[in-house]
Amino acid sequence: MSTHKSFTTATDIPVYFCDPASSWQRGSNENTNGLLRQYFPKGSDLSVYGLEDLERVAQELNGRPRKTLGWDTPAERFRDLLIRT
Description:
This protein has helices at 4-11, 27-37, 51-62, 74-84.
């Protein structure tokens, strides 16, 4: 995130930095970490997983409806964003 200022300038999207040790400030991130733990327990060595394994998990998580997205999936929201630009 060392280039966050140029990102904000280029996209007009501000970058928010949470306070250290304040997990409540990054709820979506913490929720996603919890979902990932269903596939990869804490302390797992990710190097033992192949690209296909990681892609399968990414597809499953990106296809999972989220309450915070009005029950859309992350893939649907990303698709809609690409269509608008």
